[in-house]
Amino acid sequence: MKTKADVNLVKNFISEKDFSDIEPALQQARKSLLTKTGAGSEFTGWVNWPTALLDSGDIIARIEETRNRISKFNPDVIVVIGIGGSYLGARAVYDALTPPFGRHRPEMIFAGHQLDAGYHALLMQHLKERNPVVVVISKSGTTTEPAIAFRLIRTLMEEKYGSDAARRIIAITDEKKGALRTLADSQGYETYIIPDDIGGRFSVLTPVGLLPLALCGFSVRELLEGAAQCERELSSANTISTNQAMLYAAIRQILYRQGKHVELQSTFCPQLATLSEWWKQLYGESEGKDQKGIFPASLVFTTDLHSLGQFVQDGNRVLFETFLSVAKPEKDIEIPVLNSNSDELLYLEGKNMSYVNRKAEEATRFAHAQGGVPVLALEMPELSEFTLGEIMYFFEFACALSAYTLGVNPFDQPGVEAYKQKMFELLGKNKS
Fold first, then answer.
1. Active site residue 126
2. DSSP E strands: which ranges in 250-300?
3. Residue of 420, 422, 425, 429 marked catalytic
């Protein structure tokens, strides 16, 4: 893997005996995952998906054909309608690779990921003035948030483009059943299939994530190459010392048994903030059941050092911290040399901002570890489609191992149904 784990600041909290005691459970978890014999094995299609997709090439070729067809419309915005795993993966990659200033063309924007009236009203106004293409993602087509958003946007598209609207709408849904499948077939939308054996939070490397990213000009082949390289390495190495996913899962579960029930994913790279949001769903939905699990949270430094740094440094010792770093920034800038020292920055003159940011990160890691927070770090060499594909597959693989070691099914989410049913009740869905 190009991404490397640094566990030096965890060693004061975990002994070699801890690792040796938990290793058999991790090896069994890995075996259950690879042989598809563990709980929820019917949803492990993602395990071999990257290499299978690259080997066949069929889906990639079709995605590229769709991108070429859509480009003829010269869209300036791709609207992705979905919630949870149906949008977070694509958004994570998009945000990581898109500059914070200036508009990427086409721009990726989102709908159906919440129910705020103001957001959707302003979105409709925005789309009236733009040239959009729509990607709607839903297995059933009846999930409340994306279903409402799609009704709004479909109506706008039909008013704006008439009979040509259908050519600008792509549905990613079930192969045979569901409300969105029925609508797509009746309207003639181009469709892609959500694989039955891959759950939403593991779907970023399927058409769910690949198609929107391709339409925005990103290389889905490189994304898959990074994931496939990671897949090959994690599938072949079977010890904690040689398999970084096993190492990460082992550390998490050892610390959990010590009472560390909150994992902070911290980064000094703001472009990775949405990747942390994707990671939170992946781990929260996979592990948080049967009154078990590590609560996933995230911070963006140095911003959050000035709001939550005090708690991390000196608060309740229920935390451990995983830093997600990027070795080489895409851009850099030098701190100017001036004739005065009125801002007391003489000691930084002529240094690059990346140097200052790196030293701030190193200082924070050491300070938090000295304050009683176990700290590990995952460093990506740079931000690219390849490295993002790699780190996302790494987190998926490690998540399954961690959940199996915890003793829960990584691939179901029974608690999600509770709030859905109550919401349907209060909204009167089942009333005649």
1. no
2. 262-267, 295-300
3. 420
**Is residue 227's pLDDT more than 50?**
yes
- Does the pLDDT of residue 432 top 70, yes or no? no
Give the whole-angstrom CA distance, residue 350 versus residue 333. 10
Assess whether 82 and 160 both reside in one domain.
Answer: yes
Distance CA 87, CA 85 (A): 5
Q: What is the CATH number of the domain that holds 214?
A: 3.40.50.10490
The overall pTM is greater than 0.70 = yes
Note whether residue 60 is domain-resident: yes
Catalytic residue (choose from 72, 306, 331, 431) = 306
Active-site option among 190, 263, 285, 321 = 285
Q: Catalytic: 292? A: no
Asked if the model's pLDDT at residue 420 lies above 80, the reply is no
Check whether residue 275 and residue 211 sit in a common domain.
no
User: What is the number of structural domains in the chain?
Assistant: 2
Inside any domain, residue 238: yes
Shared domain for 248 and 169, answered yes or no, is no
Range of the domain at 175: 43-218
What would the DSSP string read from start to end of 7-29?
Answer: -GGGTTT--HHHHHHHHHHHHHH
pLDDT of 402 over the 50 cut: yes
Q: Looking at the predicted structure, is the pLDDT value of residue 96 above 80? A: yes
Q: Is 285 a catalytic residue?
A: yes
